[in-house]
Amino acid sequence: MTTTRAQLRAMRLAAQGVAVPGLAPAEAVDRMLAVQGQDLGQVLWAIGVRSPGSTRDDVRAAFDRGELVRSWPMRGTLHVMRPDDLRLLLSLTAERTVRSIARRAAELGIDDPVLARARDATVGALSGGRTLVRDDLFAVYRDAGIDPTAGRGYHVLVRLAQEGLVAWGPTARVGQGLVLLDEWAPTASAPPDRDEALRRVLVGYLRGRGPATETDAAAWTKLPLGDVRRGRAAAGDAVEDLGDGLVALADRPATGGVPTGHLLPGFDEYLLGYADRSAQLDPAYAERVVPGGNGMFLAMAVVRGRVVGTWTRTERSRDVRVTVTPFEPLDAASVRAFEAAAARFGAFLGAPVAFDVARSA
Questions:
Q1: What keywords were assigned to this record (predicted)?
Q2: How far, in Å, CA of 158 to CA of 72, rounded?
């Protein structure tokens, strides 16, 4: 069986839950397993676009209630997850991440005694339900004799996050506060064995992104391909082979029933969730979304599953200006679809929208 590019895009949009109503913010993240979130402002909308009707304050409230946390579960990149999904992912990825940063940690002088002091200082500062923003926790490190400059504080945080000690929790005036994970969001379940953990991760990946290839899943999780296949074997008939290397959940959502146009944030899983992104983004325009190939993914304008441009927002006192810059001139139907998508974004922010389309470059 061959899946056409159009069918693949439709199925991926349905799996991603883009503009599909009915889920609260934490439920939308749960269906995705994890949502890339190195930019907090962007990931708030990544969650909002998958939980239509929610506002930015609703998403922030999910963090404030401990339903969602942000941490580095894989690829050295911040993601948003349910707390127990963070624990699940760390059980498979933390050891590899620690090995990958060991050389840099040694160059920075972060050895076992330094980590022990940082661990004690962190527990002392955050225990009892307290939360500190990054700079305030770094001040605690200074008092403990640990210089957080030159990237040391960041590397200490990443290492302690791999242990499941800390995570980014409630929202603050700027950014988020750090918390002790087990105190902020206790777990009631014992960790699964490795096969079950691999099964859950693969099923979670496909639930929010399928159809995809095993290579896509390995690239997203940074797990060896053998582990992905082990998870697939454990999943049994829950995973269906669609041909051409594509797999998906046998119980997957129907396509259709969503708006034609979408304004997705930068770093969105609709693109970053796959190693091969050519079905969604014509490689001829990849430079327009990732300028210079430097890892900075711009916000994307999407019609019928295809990335056809980028967009920017400017929040002003009276409204939010949304400007779409297409790769090629848009037809009238696409302009109307983006105008409707901009209105949905404005509702998420709770602000009127001033919408326009820039001349295609």
A1: DNA-binding
A2: 7
